[in-house]
Amino acid sequence: MPKITFIKSDGAELVIDAKEGATLMQAGIDGGINGIVAECGGCCQCATCHVYVAPVWQGRLSAVSESEDAMLDNTVCDRRPESRLSCEIKITQELDGLVVHVPMRQV
Amino acid sequence: MTATVAIVGAGLAGFQVASSLRDQHYQGRVLLIGEEPHRPYHRPPLSKAFLLNAPEELSVAMRPDPYYADKKIEVLSSTRAVSVDRTHRKLALDNGSVIDFEHLVLAVGARNRPLHVPGYDLPGVFFLRHLDEARALRVRLHKAKQAVVIGAGFIGLEFAAAARKLGVAVTVLEVADRPMSRALSAPMSALFSRELANSGIRFLFGTQLKRLIDDEGRVAGVETVEGAVIDADLVLIGIGVIPNVELAATCNLEIRNGIAVDANLSTSDPHISALGDCASYPSPYAAEDFVRLESVQNASDQGRCVAARILGRPTPYSAVPWFWSDQGALKLQIAGLTTGHDETVLRGDPAGISCSVFCFREGRLLGVETVNRPADHMAARRLVGNHIAISPAEAADESVDLKRLATAATGETRRA
């Protein structure tokens, strides 16, 4: 199982075993990452599963869709070049070791 | 005795109240009471990705089980609230226990509108609201060849699109003359009608179901009042919902197409709040005096509003309503409340699968329906939410940058 590291805004790190095929959002929720809110249930509608992906990983993720791009303009914490919605990232073995930062607020 | 907030209903609205209370450091007891055997879960995927996922079932839990113990949210599953004694602030449950509450939250939701035609309870006939219903439907859908959907609303059409994706033949029966007629403007409805038909969904509008055909104890098709017979090994009924007002009614709270609440989401009893699908409230965005909305946005934003009031920080509820529905390649999004519009303006090409319909009433923007135009939708949430004026001519003009208009307009200059 790919290991994913979530770093919270206070610096606390949590490493979770993610299921392949699940979304990064669901992996975070199931792993007890409280900073992932995901009000819409992972439908790319609410921008409350916002994460910052460490730059070194960005090239290995699926591209940002038009939907995700529009939604990212609506995050509570600032959108940065490394911003993604975790519901739009599918976990694969290639993402083993992925590091993401969770913003301070989602709503 | 510890102060207790008793929340009846463990859907998104109830969950949001519980979780917001804890996020804002409420110190009392929080009880979340739900009739289903499950912890809170997301309903939106049930009519979409959940149906398609195979062989494994998609996880829809809102939070993992340890969350509730960590947050000291007591979840009572498979439990029904039976009566409220408002004078003594007591809530009776069907397991015989009685809860003393400081504040009662009615997040009781709605239930599927039944259809009492002959054969409605045959095996192979489904409704879709709960996880258990979705599980049974998913199993049957993966074996189905011909499905009939009764009702061209959001649930019916999302299911129809999913069924088409699995190669199932789909016929949709609708009593109105167009799909989603209560929710959508005529031009957007026409786009969906055309595109869903292009994807292979067959529509029969202006028709009603007479009976479901019984073949040795299983559904084998439907018959319309006009006498048309359509074969089917799966029938989904999606003809809307009825708000669950009974508990509120039996303790004499005011009812008006839902449990009546004021702008702070308080019922006629200040110790009782109601929110989500079951609550009828005054919305600054509505043409009518009161609205009852069935949506994710409504449930979660109202949940936060109710929690804040319980914590002594009441703020009138004023979040801009938004909705979405994914139907195959069509991503529908709506910002604002468009009921009562007297003018529609198109942006983009309605002959394609990417356009927006701006709905105006007396020149003022009520709301915007978009299909596959997420940037327009996000701009529309801001335009409507911040009451920013936009003329019909600007709305139609693709050279007008909506995002810029929505974010740049401040103060009095463009106030609607």
Folded structure, characterized:
The complex is a heterodimer of chains A (107) and B (416). Chain A is built from 3 helices and 5 strands. The mean pLDDT of chain A is 94. The termini of chain A are far apart. Chain A is an alpha+beta fold and 107 residues long. Chain A is globular. Chain A has a 5-stranded mixed beta sheet. Chain A has helices spanning 24-30, 55-58, 66-72; strands at residues 3-7, 13-17, 50-53, 83-85, 99-101. Chain A has a single domain (3-101), classed as Ubiquitin-like (UB roll) (Roll). By secondary structure, chain B is α/β, with parallel strands linked by helices. Chain B folds into 3 domains: 4-42 and 62-111 and 242-310, FAD/NAD(P)-binding domain (3-Layer(bba) Sandwich); 114-239, FAD/NAD(P)-binding domain (3-Layer(bba) Sandwich), CATH 3.50.50; 329-408, Enolase-like, domain 1 (2-Layer Sandwich). Helix content of chain B is 24%, strand content 28%. Chain B contains 11 helices and 25 strands. Chain B has helices at 12-23, 49-52, 66-70, 131-141, 154-165, 186-198, 246-250, 296-310, 374-385, 392-396, 402-408, and strands at residues 4-8, 29-33, 73-76, 81-85, 90-93, 98-100, 103-106, 110-112, 125-126, 146-150, 169-173, 201-204, 209-215, 218-224, 229-231, 234-237, 241-243, 259-260, 272-274, 279-280, 322-327, 330-336, 343-349, 354-361, 364-371. In chain B, the strands form 7 sheets. In chain B, strands 3-2-1-7-19 form a 5-stranded parallel beta sheet. Chain B has a 5-stranded parallel beta sheet with strand order 9-16-10-11-12. In chain B, strand 24 and strand 25 (364-371) form a beta hairpin. In chain B, helix 1 runs parallel beside helix 8 (296-310). The N and C termini of chain B lie far apart (50 Å).
The main pleated sheet of chain A reads as: 5 strands, mixed
Number of helices, counting only DSSP H or I runs of 4 residues or more of chain A: 3
Number of strands of chain A: 5
Written as H for each helix and E for each strand, in order along the chain, the element string of chain A is EEHEHHEE
How much β-strand is present in the residues of chain A? 15-25%
The outline of chain A comes out as globular
**Level-2 CATH architecture of chain A:** Roll
The fold-level CATH name of chain A is Ubiquitin-like (UB roll)
Helical coverage of chain B, percent range:
10-25%
